[in-house]
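User:
Can I borrow your eye for a moment on a structure tokenisation matter? Would you put together a sequence-and-structure record for a protein of your own picking? Please set it down just below, with no commentary around it:
AI:
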Amino acid sequence: MEKNTKRVARIARHQRVRKKVSGAQGSPRLSVFRSARHIYAQVIDDIHSHTIASASTLDPVFRDQKVDGGKKEAAKWVGQEIARRAQEKGIKKVVFDRGGYKFLGRVKVLAEAAKESGLKF
């Protein structure tokens, strides 16, 4: 499959899922974006269009910790960090938005780490 076709297919999947998944005040949306080198996670209140918490491999905290083990270990750190930051804001339950990506690899590791750290999906 051509690179551009994969991207278009992912965006179509994401839009299809977004019609059904919405984050309210009580259970905001945990959105994941994955690039070739980094992974990003945000807890979003869709009613007010407001990002409540975010974490990524670009955070200075991540850079200081020197996480070894590759992209999956980095995704695990981001999952734990987003769960910690969400819980600091009083968020315990979220709706998981995988962003059109298949639920495997780094996306799955991030989700499992967030669950283990106390977030409920």
